[in-house]
Amino acid sequence: MRLNTVDTYRELQPFQSVEELNRSLSAMRSSDAFRELTPAARRVFDVLARYSAKYPGVSFRSKAKIADELGVSRMTVIRACKQLQAAGFIVQHALKRATGDRRQSSNAIVFSVVTPECDTGNVTPKKPQYKPRDKQITRDTEKPRKERKQAIIKDGLAAHLPAVLRHALAPFFNDADALYRAVGVVYRAKASVSADLRIEAYEDAFRQAITGVMSAFKRGKVRNLDAVLYAAIQRTTKALHIRGLFADAIGMDALVR
Predict the structure, then answer these.
(1) SS3 state at 43
(2) CA distance 228 to 185
């Protein structure tokens, strides 16, 4: 039985991007098999889809939390997952805790890869094939040379960024060009309000603004990333700038008195 570690989730990950996942989910929802699901199974499907973005196609949300979110019993969620698996939409993998007593953890629920069939409302599920961990080729060796080069350049760029950008922004991009463009958006948005305000001095505020936008983007809620990121950074900078002016005003008032 696998452990509930990052390596396991990455090994089970059937999609390379959220966009690929969303295409498969759309194909599933338009299928006859989906329409035959119970209302509860369709609701559980939607929850699993929302919590499958970090490792595209893999959800490790517990059935108890899904039940609480939907206001149903845990047994209802278990039955719904069995129905989804029988329809070929998901595969459940039992996991053990990586730390502590190594008891059973929440299952990893992995969406199947599907392809739409022409002129029908059906989908053809293709369950991902997993190789044993000791025989699996590393991701780095499977990447095309161009992607490996981009990853190296991206890592070099990220190393020179302020910590808040390195941790909140860099993980969402696979290549240096996309990361470089996003960093430029952040700095232009900040400079449009205040050239003197330093991102490093307000790490928590900027981290919250950036992660909020990037999380929404990965869930498919943001179409124009540059515009939404620019607006969020500009809004955050304005709030911090006003706060600083207010603090300065209070200080000057105290000196006059």
Answers:
(1) helix
(2) 10
CA distance 211 to 100: 30
Residue 121 has pLDDT above 50, yes or no: no
- Alpha carbon distance 226, 233 (integer Å): 11
* pLDDT, tens only, 177-228: 788 888 889 989 999 998 888 888 888 999 999 989 988 888 888 889 899 9
For domain 2-126, give the fold: Arc Repressor Mutant, subunit A (1.10.10)
Q: Mean pLDDT in the chain?
A: 80
Separation CA 242–CA 9 (nearest Å): 43
| Contacting residues for 224 by C-beta, under 8 A, at least 6 apart | none
Q: Is the pTM here over 0.85, yes or no?
A: no
pLDDT digits (tens, 9 = 90+) for 127-151: 454 444 444 444 555 555 656 555 5
Please report, for the chain, the start and end positions of each structural domain, with discontinuous segments joined by +: 2-126, 141-256
- Length of the chain in residues, anyone? 257
Number of Cβ atoms within 10 Å of the Cβ of 22: 17
In this predicted structure, the answer to whether residue 252 has a pLDDT above a threshold of 50 is no
Instruction: Say if CB 51 and CB 59 are below 8 A apart.
Output: yes
CA distances from 194 to 13, 151, 164, 166 (A): 42, 32, 18, 21
What are residue 108's DSSP bridge partners? 93
Tell me what percent of the residues of the chain surpass a pLDDT of 70. Answer: 75
Radius of gyration, alpha carbons of the chain: 23
Q: Within 13 Å, how many C-alpha atoms sit on residue 124's CB side?
A: 5
Distance CA 162, CA 198 (A): 10
